[in-house]
Structure formats: C-alpha cells, structure tokens
Amino acid sequence: MTAEFRIKPQEDTTTSTSSSELMCRNCKTRLSRIKRSELAKFFLFGLPLKKYICYKCSRKTYRWVSK
Ligand SMILES: [Zn+2]
Q1: Rounded distance from Cα 32 to ligand 1 centre (Å)
Q2: What distance in angstroms lies between residue 21's CA and the mean position of ligand 1's atoms?
Q3: pLDDT of 15-67, one tens digit each?
Q4: DSSP code of 50?
Q5: How many Å lie between the centroid of ligand 1 and the Cα of residue 17?
C-alpha cells in the first residue's frame, strides 16, 4: 500500500480564522490534515471525523470536527 497523503507548503499561520488549529499533544506541532483511506471512509461514512498527522512524531489521529 502506498501512503496517499500529500504535503502542501502552506504557511497560513497568521490568518485570523479561528478554525480549529490542531496541535499534537505530544510535541505541540501543528497537525496536518491528510486524506482518509477508503477503508476509513467506509467505516466513518457520514461522520465529521477528519484525519490528521503530526509529521514530527508521525502520529496519526482522528479529530471530531463539529461546526
Ligand atoms: Zn507530534
């Protein structure tokens, strides 16, 4: 299986949008959003769960995104 996340060089840290800036609880690095796998899509269908990764300690986590 190939990893299917893409890294975009985006530095929007100065935006005033209060949209959940998620931090890694381990190293306080900002988490990056990655695409869910097809399997996860199947299981989490309809749920506002988003997958994030911390590239520093390579931990993946799901976050509940409620609007
Ligand atoms: Zn981390």
Answers
A1: 10
A2: 14
A3: 444 455 789 999 999 999 998 889 888 888 888 888 999 999 999 998 887 76
A4: E
A5: 23
Tokens of 18: 């209060």
Please name which of 30, 31, 37, 36 lies closest in space to residue 50, comparing C-alpha atoms.
36
What 3-state DSSP class applies to 10?
A: coil
User: Who surrounds ion ligand 1 at CB < 5 A?
Assistant: 24, 26-27, 29, 54, 56-57
Domain residue ranges of the chain, discontinuous segments joined by +: 22-60
Task: Give the CB-side neighbour count of residue 23, counting CA atoms within 13 A.
Answer: 6
CA 27 to ligand 1 centroid distance, Å: 4
Scanning the structure block, which residue is given the tokens 């100065």? 14
Alpha-carbon Rg for the chain, nearest whole angstrom, is 13
Nearest Cα to Cα of residue 33 among 14, 16, 15, 10 = 10
